[in-house]
Amino acid sequence: MHRIPRFTTWIFIILLMVTLGTTFQVSSHSKDANNFSSPTGGTEFHLPVVNRYSPWTAPFAIESTLSLAASTVHNQQMQNLKSTWVRLNERISWKALQPQEGDPIQWNLLEGFENELRAIRAAGAKPIVIVDDYPTWATIVPNSCSALKPDKYDDFANFAIALVQKYKTPEFNVKDWELGNEVDVDPVLIPVNSVYGCWGDISDLAYYGGDHYGEMIKVVGNAIKVANPDARVWIGGLLLASPNTTNPALGKPENFLRGVLSAGAAPYFDVVPYHAHTLYYGIVTDPESQLAGPWLDWGGGMVGKANYLRALMQEFGVTKTLSVNEIGVGCRDDFSFCVPTPGPDFLDFQADMIVRLAVRAMGANLESFVWYTLNGPGWRSMGLLDGSTPRPSFVSYQTLIAQTSGATYSHPINYGDGIEAYAFSNSTEIINVVWTELDASIPFTVPQDKFLGAVDRDGNAITPIVVGNNYQFTATFSPIYAVISH
Question: What is the pTM of this model?
C-alpha cells in the first residue's frame, strides 16, 4: 500500500484563505491507497420500510481503496451496506501493465482486480473502473500523471479496447469506464508520478488543457463504444475547486470541461462526474450552505457544482448524466479538534451529513452518489469503517439505503420555514426524509390516517405525539424518516 498526496488539500486551503480571510499552514495530506411497530398513546403503527431490501432504484455508492474480494471484511461490509455502485481506482495502471511501448499487457497483474470484480458482481453491485497512471513513454512530460502525446492516443485506445473486451463478459460485467481522476489538475501542482490522470494546463486560460483531453476522448471514448456498445464512458472526475479561480498561479481549471466540449468530444462520453468533499469545522452547521465558500451563490459545494456544469453544457447544447463520484465529510489534522483523532461530535456530524448530502444529490438529479471511502478511518477520517468496525456514518448510510430501497426520488416537501425535506416514493408509500436547515428543533406533522411509521437517522423507531388528527414529530439537524401512504 502506498499513499498519494492530495491536490484537493492545497486548493481548498487557498480558496478558504481567499474566501473566509483565514490563514492556515499548508501541509501535505494523503488518501489511503492500494494498488490492486410500537404502541403510542394506545395507537399502534408499523414500520414497513425499516428492513425491506427490494430491488434497487436508489443509486447510493461507495469507493474502497482496499480490496473488495470475497474473502475480505470490506466485501462483507459492502454487502451489509447494499451499495449500488462501487468505484474502483488504482486498480488499472497502464504504466504497470504495459511499461514499455509495444509490450504485451501483463494480465497476470490483474488477478486480484478480477477477483474483486467477481465478488462485486456476486453482491449485485456495479463497478465503475478508472483507467489512469500512464507510462511515461506515452506522456508529454516524464510523469505518469500527465497529458498524453497526441500520437499515443491510438496506443491508449488499443489498451482500452483490450480491457473492455476482456471485462465486458458476464463473468465481470464491467460497463462503466472512467478515464482518469481529477483530470482538471495541472501535474506541476502535485508530486511526480501521483496515480491520477492530470491533464490540466495552468498556462491555458481558455480551456486549462480540456481541449487536449477532449481530443483524446474522441479517440479512446469511441474505441470503448465500438468494443462494447453497452459501455459508458465517464470523463475523469473533476476536482472543480471553484467556479471562478482568481489566483493567477492556479490558472482557470473551471474551464476544463469547456475545453472538452469545444474539442467536439460530447458524442464520445456519457457521464460527467465531479468531486465535492467538505469539512467539519467543530460546530453543527451545514458546510454546504453557511460555509460553501465560492460555491455559495451556486447552491453549495455539491449542488452548486452540478448547477455550474449544467449551465456550461447548456452553452454547447449538450446534456450529460452527472454524478458526484467522490464525496466525503472530513476532519483536517491541522484543526485542533481533529487530533489526535476526531471525537464523537465529528462522527455524529458526519453521520448526519451523509444523509443530507446523499438526499440532496437525488434532488439535484444526480445519477449516483459515491462516498469516499468505505474503508477507514481513511483520508481526513472520511471512512465509513474504523478498521472492520462500522462508524455512525456507516449505520446512517445503511439506514438511508434501507429506507429508500425500492423507491425513487420524487420531490422536495414544504414543512415550513427552517425545515428541509424530500420525498421518495414507491407504489404504496412515500418516504419523507426530514431535517432542519440549522441546528434547531422544529415541530412538523403528518396525517394520522396516512401514517405508516417513522425512524431516526439510525433506524430506531420514533414515537410521535398525537395532535388532533395528526402525528407530530420534531425535526432537528439529524435526519429522520416519516413514512406515509399515498
Answer: 0.88
